[in-house]
Design brief:
7 strands; single chain; disordered C terminus; about 130 residues; alpha/beta; about 20% helix
C-alpha cells in the first residue's frame, strides 16, 4: 500500500491510500473512508501499459482538491498513464455507466491539466474483428 497525507482546500488533512496493484485509491479522514477511485490496469501491446479509471466515487469529498491529488499520487507511485473513457461509473453501487455532468467536467479538467490522458480509440479493433 502507498499512503500520502494531503491537506485539502478545506484545511483538513486526509489520507490517500493506493492498494498494491494500483487499482484502488481510497480517500479517508480520521480512519473513515470518504471516497474511492477504481482503476483497471490495461496491457497495451503497442505501448506502455496504462490505468483506466472505472469508478469515481468522491461525492463526500469533492471540490477540495482530493480527486486531483489522488490521481497525481497514483502517477508518482506507478509512473504509468491514466485515462478515462465514457464508461466511468459515479459510484461502485451505481447501475449507470455514465458520469454525471460534474464527473465529466472533472475528467475534462484532469485532461486539460495533463493528469488524465485522452482515450485513444484509433486502431482499437484489428482487421480480423
Amino acid at each position: 500500500m502507498h499512503e500520502k497525507e494531503f491537506v485539502a482546500k478545506d484545511g483538513l488533512t486526509y489520507t490517500i491510500t493506493i492498494n498494491a496493484t494500483g487499482e484502488e485509491i481510497t480517500v479517508a479522514q480520521s480512519g473513515v473512508t470518504l471516497g474511492v477511485i477504481d482503476l483497471k490496469r490495461v496491457s497495451n501491446p503497442r505501448g506502455p501499459d496504462y490505468y483506466l479509471i472505472t469508478v469515481l466515487d468522491l461525492e463526500k469529498c469533492k471540490r477540495i482538491g482530493l480527486g486531483e491529488a489522488s490521481l497525481r499520487h497514483h502517477q508518482q507511485v506507478f509512473r504509468l498513464p491514466l485515462t478515462a473513457n465514457g464508461d466511468v461509473r459515479e459510484g461502485r453501487r451505481s447501475n449507470e455507466s455514465q458520469l454525471t455532468r460534474e464527473g465529466i467536467l472533472f475528467i475534462q479538467k484532469m485532461r486539460a491539466r495533463e493528469v488524465v490522458a485522452a482515450e485513444d480509440f484509433h486502431d482499437a479493433f484489428n482487421e480480423d474483428e
